[in-house]
Design brief:
Blueprint: E1 9-13, H1 18-29, E2 33-38, H2 41-55, E3 60-63, H3 69-82, E4 87-90, H4 105-133, E5 136-141, H5 154-174, E6 179-186, H6 192-204, H7 212-217, H8 228-239, E7 250-253
Parallel strand pairs: 1-2, 1-4, 2-3, 4-5, 5-6, 6-7
The protein binds NADP nicotinamide-adenine-dinucleotide phosphate.
Length: about 260
C-alpha cells in the first residue's frame, strides 16, 4: 500500500499541541513537509525543530488565530504563492462546554468562525494549488458529535454537525480533481483538552469514591482512552495515496464509543 508522502506538503492547523501536533509528526514520518499553524509561536518553533529531525526537511510554521479570517487568508495565500499545498488538516480547539439553551449568539458566531469559516477560507485558497498538483487531501478533525450529540456540549454539537455538512458538500464538488475531503471523529484522546475535561468532572465528584476517568472509560468498548498517535495514524493514512478512494466520510476513531452503527 502506498503510504509514502515524500514531495508532498501539508498545512496542519492547531499544531502547537494535541491531535494537531500528533498529525504533523505522523505526516513527517511518511516524508511529508509540514507547515504548522497555531497561535503560540514558542510551541510552534520548538515543534518545527522536533519535526525537522523526523523528516530532515525545512518545515515551517505560521502564527495565526483561526478567528482572524483576513489574516488567515493573507498568510495561507502567501504560502501557496511559493509552494503547492497538497494536504490540509483543519483542526482547532473545541468550543467551551455548556448547554445550548445557555449559549450566546456570540459564542455560536465564534465557533462558526473558528471551525467553518476558517476551514472554508483555507480550502478556497489551497484548492487551486491541489488542482494544479493533481493531488488533494482535506482532513477535518471534528468530533463523534457529528453522529451523536454529546450532552453538555451544545455549541460544539451544533458546529460539528455543520462541519459534517460542509465537508460532505465540498467532497461532492472537488472529487473530480482528485481531492478527497474527510472528517476524523476522535473519541476521548489523551491531550491537554481531555485532561481539563477529566479534572472538571472529577471536581464535581469530590466527596464520592468515584473516578471521573474510570466513568469515562466505562462507556468505551476498548476500555481506555486513545493515544494521540492512534488518531494521528488514521489522519496520515487518509492523507496518503493509500486513502485515494475514501472521500465524503466521517471516520470515528473512538474505541467503539459511538452507539450508532
Ligand atoms: N482530545 C479529545 O479527547 C477530543 C475528542 C473529541 C474531539 N476533539 C476535538 O479535536 C480537536 C483537537 O483536540 P485536542 O485535544 O488536540 O485539542 P488541544 O490539545 O486543546 O489543541 C488545540 C490546538 O488548536 C490550537 N488552537 C486553538 N484555538 C486556536 C485558534 N483560535 N487559532 C489557531 N489555533 C488554535 C491550539 O494551539 P494554540 O493555543 O497555540 O493556538 C492547539 O494547538 C478539537 O476540536 C477537539 O474538540 C478532541
Amino acid at each position: 500500500m502506498a503510504l509514502d508522502l515524500q514531495n508532498k506538503t501539508a498545512l496542519v492547523c492547531g499544531a502547537s499541541r494535541g491531535i494537531g501536533l500528533g498529525a504533523a509528526e505522523a505526516l513527517a514520518h511518511k516524508g511529508c513537509k509540514v507547515i504548522l499553524l497555531g497561535r503560540t509561536e514558542a510551541d510552534l518553533q520548538s515543534n518545527v525543530t522536533t519535526i525537522n529531525a523526523i523528516n530532515n526537511l525545512e518545515n515551517q510554521y505560521i502564527v495565526v488565530d483561526l478567528g482572524n479570517i483576513d489574516d488567515l487568508k493573507a498568510q495561507v495565500s502567501d504560502l501557496v504563492n511559493t509552494q503547492d499545498i497538497h494536504i490540509v488538516i483543519n483542526n482547532s480547539g473545541g468550543p467551551a462546554p455548556g448547554l445550548l439553551v445557555d449559549a450566546t449568539t456570540d459564542q455560536l458566531i465564534a465557533a462558526f468562525t473558528h471551525h467553518i469559516l476558517a476551514s472554508h477560507t483555507i480550502a478556497k485558497v489551497v484548492i487551486p494549488s491541489m488542482k494544479k498538483a493533481g493531488y488533494g487531501r482535506i482532513i477535518n478533525v471534528v468530533s463523534t458529535s457529528v453522529r451523536q450529540p454529546i450532552p453538555g456540549l451544545g455549541v460544539s454539537n451544533t458546529i460539528r454537525g455543520a462541519m459534517g455538512s460542509w465537508s460532505k458538500t465540498l467532497a461532492n464538488e472537488v472529487g473530480k480533481y482528485n481531492i478527497t475531503v474527510n472528517n476524523i471523529l476522535p473519541g476521548a484522546t489523551k491531550t491537554g483538552r481531555l485532561q481539563q475535561i477529566i479534572d472538571k468532572k472529577q471536581a464535581k465528584l469530590e466527596g464520592t469514591n468515584q473516578s471521573a476517568e474510570a466513568n469515562m472509560q466505562s462507556v468505551i468498548p476498548l476500555g481506555r482512552f486513545a493515544e494521540v498517535s492512534e488518531v494521528a495514524g488514521v489522519i496520515a493514512f487518509l492523507a496518503s495515496p493509500g486513502g485515494s478512494y475514501i472521500s465524503g466520510t466521517s471516520i470515528p476513531v473512538d474505541g467503539g464509543r459511538l452507539k450508532c452503527i
